[in-house]
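Q: Predict the assembly, please.
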Amino acid sequence: MLFPPDFLTRLEYLSMMSKRVFRGRLLAQRRSLQTGAGLEFSDHREYAPGEDLRYLDWNIYARHGQMLVKRFQEEQDLQVSVLLDASRSMSIGQPPKFDRARQLAAAFAWLALADLDRAGISVFADGLVQELPGGRGRERILTLMRFLEGLPAAGQGTRFARSVQDFLQRSPRPGLAIVLSDLLDPSGVSEGLDQLRYRRFDLHVVQLFDPRDARPELLGDVELEDPETGEVQQVRITERVAADYRRAFLEHQESVRSYCLRYGFRWTAADSSVPYDQLMLQMMKAAGMDAAAENGPAP
Amino acid sequence: MSLLNPAALFLLLIALPITLLYVLRVRLRRVPVSSLMFWQKALADQPPRAFWQRFRHLASWLMTLLLLVLLTLSAVDIRMSSRSSRSQRLVLVLDVSSSMAARSRGTSRLDAARQAALQQIAELSDDDEAAVIAAGSAPVILCGITSHQPTLRRAIAEAEQTPGTGQLQDAILLAQRIAAGAARTSTGASSGEGTGRVVVFSDGCGEFQPHESVDWQTFGELQPNVGFTAFQVRRSPADPLGYELLLRVQNAADVSVTGRVEVERDGVPLDVIPISIAANGEWTQVISKLSAEGGQLRAELTALQFQVAPGVTAPEDGLVADNTAWALLPARPRQQVLLVSPGSLFVQKVLEANPLVDLTVWSELPERPVWPADTLVVLHELVPAVLPPNPLLVLDPRSGCDLWTLSGEVSDPVLETTQSESAWMRNVRLEQVLIPSASVLDFATPPQVLAEATGGVPLYAAVRRANAGPVLVLSIRFGGSDLAYRTVFPILVANAFNEFAGQRREVTSAFAAGETARLVLQDDKSPLPEGNSLSATRLFSLRAPTGNLQQLRATATSGEWQLVTEPLQETGIWEVSKLTEFVVNAAHQSEVDLRPAVAVSVADKPKTASSWLSGSTVTRWLSLLVLVVMAVEWALHQRRWLA
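A: Predicted assembly structure:
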């Protein structure tokens, strides 16, 4: 069963945990990365000719002679968009990665809805397949769960860049984008992530993997079948080949992780064999430590 | 080249299913994975193996076929035709004499020789032939010329240690004849390519001449040894009816030795004599005062200790078997003798001179005599009409009786022995002895004539009676003859008394182990058939010291059963049907000395004809190759190797 009877109970528990971890800085109270006509000072930037002189920081100018414009953080509703991978590669695993991804999607959505944010789900494979538009209110979680339950992992291939492009065309408003995917796109995922970054989305990449994806226990002569392309390849897997595979897999994970770190995004490698609530707690703890590192000890 | 087992070529048919299996190949397991892109990247890092992997099935198939071919070649047993000229004929001579029982470091010389002989057999090729001869007291062919190695090994294993002297000389001659004969048989007289070789496995002890034409493998060390070389009861020169015991011990060592000789009779200690023998010396002692009861004597050397310099470890006695010896002491029971004589001082004194005789004298023959039982009766001149049932010695009968009649007198007869081998005539030989006169007796039944006159007149005869004692009749007139004054008469009387008593009291020499014994037996319960037919035979049971029984057939010769045994391989006291006993001792001078009597030049270890071309070696090489190919094939299938 994708969503067991106690699923919502556990989500409530996760919500409480998130409040304690973030100590009042929950999703809805997060400052948007957008700067604009807000009240809270954000930072300075160079003055460009033609800009409104009201925002010029005259004190700086008086002291240092530099023309810097004050920027203010724009406060607005947070749009949480969950980008859920529904390609056939997500059906691999025990339990399938897609099941775990849907549970995580529901959890993330619940946290957003619980904090009065807007939450929507966009399902992608070789393009945007389905979409549940963003909405607000806790009662929306049931609709969202029904939507997730009806999703198959039947997408032909993974084309993340194209999927992001479709998503951006439909959701021009930036916000928090949570990507739940194994990111097994042969053409790479950096292009899609770049598009989100360019559109000033705050990103949280959850890279799902099955333990057998990371450490295959295959040896000898086998036929490998790619569920997305249907391609079959006869290979002789030796210890060395298996080691090379593990190395390639880790390099792939590392490339995504380094990308996210480079641009300040969150990245989580999620083992699909780990229960969703434990995964969520791990992610919260990581986020809490990050927040603590940014803001110092909580009052 | 020839194939001994061409039917094994059918094994090659297995190549068909092997090829079929390789053609069909095994259906691979299909495994769905999340993506092939990492696998492709990992496999792309193996370019050097791509070529090999393309052909690995083909290589495996070819290797399996190679395995099959090698196994088939091994099974068909290839024989190289060029080997026939290299084949060898060995005759192995295994010394099994008593000295080979000497032990060193827990192993006897014979065991070491057996191992060396087995090793020699193992090195033979399939075409080589060999024979095995045991050099015991007589050469025994344990196994004739054969190439069947299990038979040869069994023959070597069954070579038994003998306690006697090894006739190595005879064994080598026999081996050379076998080797020469085998070589002629196998190669033909004209080819001259055959080689027959004799290999002797011995300790070099014993009496033999070294042969340069044989290969020697010697065993054993220069061990000291002390042993009996003589333990014998003999007649006493001082006492005609007494015995004395000769003991002789040899020290075959370069150091002196001390010890004890313990002598016992029928298990009762008789004497303990300390001995001390110089290096390479000999100790001899004669014991003259022996019991008249007789019995089995056993002597044993104990507490032997070689005298070496301080700080030098004293060696141990090399051979145990010659530390014990046996002898038989004849019993000397007293005999009741009744002399019936009108008066002959000489006869009476002869009888009285015998210390074992309790003599009673009747000067005349009663009308109704009552003959005492268990008494030997000597009738001198006086002869009753009916002879008593007692054993009788009749001297110069002057009248007839139920066994003979007096038919006259012969003057100046020349006396000659006719049956010198008879027990009655032991130690007596009468040839051309002129006597003045003798009575002529006509016997009712033909007697056993022991001595007769020139004309065939029996003058000393033995008559055996049914249900009565034997009768000896000496018809010489004592009055005018000097026969009585000769030493012959007391001996004849002693022989007669011994035979009457059922104990010949004759001392027989102990047989050396390994000898054959020739025995003369008398069995009153089973008398010889009438006429002493030479064809008469009878089975006697021979009991060895260990209790083993064997049946031997004796033939009737000269009125006695004569028995010839097989070589006696056990030391101790033997018994023949509870009639007589004899002794077999290991004591022999040549076997006591465990040091090689002749300096044998130890040849190099004989080279066998085994070459890499020999049949068994080809098979061995093929088998080895099969193992190598199997190992390679196994390794190729291992992931580590392919990786």
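The interface with chain B takes residues 89, 92-93, 97, 182, 184, 186, 209-210, 213, 216, 218-229, 231-236, 238-242, 244-245, 247-249, 252 of chain A (CB under 8 Å). The radius of gyration of chain A is 21 Å.
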